Amino acid sequence: MIDVKTAANKAYEYFRDLYADKDFSAVLLEEVELTDDQNFWLITLSYLMPAMDPPQLFGTAPKRAYKIFTIDANTGKVKSMKIRTIK
To answer: Quick one: pLDDT band at residue 16, thresholds 50, 70, 90?
Structure first.
């Protein structure tokens, strides 16, 4: 079984490779969870959205978005990437 650090790196590499042409910045590791059956790591990454056109208004914080990755705990293969909504 892969460890949590490896699972987080797999999610980050997948995100970076998939969005290589986008200007996402400040990617952060937000959450990690091993499923009860220990078959999958659930890894949540957040990132700042690219600047809007026209530029964001002064004093407006950039929007942070979230993705949750399902990583096979045995192989390290990314099984899914989904939008993670924060309420």
So the answer is: very high
